[in-house]
Amino acid sequence: MRIVFMGTPDFALASLKALVENQYNVVGVVTVADKPAGRGQKTIASPVKTYAVSKGIKVLQPLKLKDESFFAELKALEPDVQVVVAFRMLPEVVWRLPKYGTFNLHASLLPNYRGAAPINWAIINGEKETGVTTFFIDEKIDTGAIIAQAITAIEPHETAGSLHDKLMVQGAELVLQTIDRIGAGTCQPHPQDKELTFAEAPKIYKDTCKINWEASGVAIERLVRGMSPYPTAWTTFIHKGEALPVKVYDAQFEPMLHNLPIGQLIVGKKTLSIAVTDGYLHLLELQLPAKKRMKIQDLLNGFSFEDTKLER
How much is the pTM? Predict the structure, then answer.
């Protein structure tokens, strides 16, 4: 089958690599336009484009997916099937183009966690397991008929980063299985159950990442893990009268009864903890403004938390 692949970040790259390295017939790649990034604002290509170019695969980078010239180029590739991983919502004329349809890889067990940030929300909400789903694209977001699913456990101290990497590999395998089913004529998609109650995975904003110190210790720890390493939970310290926004990459909750006010800092020689409603949150890895990300032991070697308090 002639395959057109659509995707942009590393999560998508794993699936594209799996297709190419296993000799599937990828005739074209659609990805985001090159963008300036970093301090020097150098123009950077997406990971998917960089790999596709290295393999001599034709790359399309439309600014608008409804552009007639883009559609003409896409149609000229004569795709039998299109594979979408971590890309934009497609117009109907695009996803209806291939004779075997267009399917998407989503990082959750649909219909659970439809939306932009399924990995983050699964951890924030304390799920014990998640997985990946392939489904045929339809008019709405993440609502199409399910082709295949694979489950993975969420470990007790899982982060969004570690779960991302697990699902990236698992997802690539599921993409190959899905292509094989479609090619063999054994694909039997089933509609998503409209009667199920399920969680959503909406886009994450800066305010979503702000730590609410009135929440339970378990909820705060899950937020930290669910936002690590990106987009990262944050809070504000008042240090010698100056507000310091601080990124929190790792923390661990210890349940315990205490009489300390919520938000009080407890500074040890190698530890930094914050009193919460039902115990202590031990901060393990932080990033201060204009500084690099550091383990708390290393941070305490060069930064004094004397005359520092938590902004609430």
Answer: 0.95
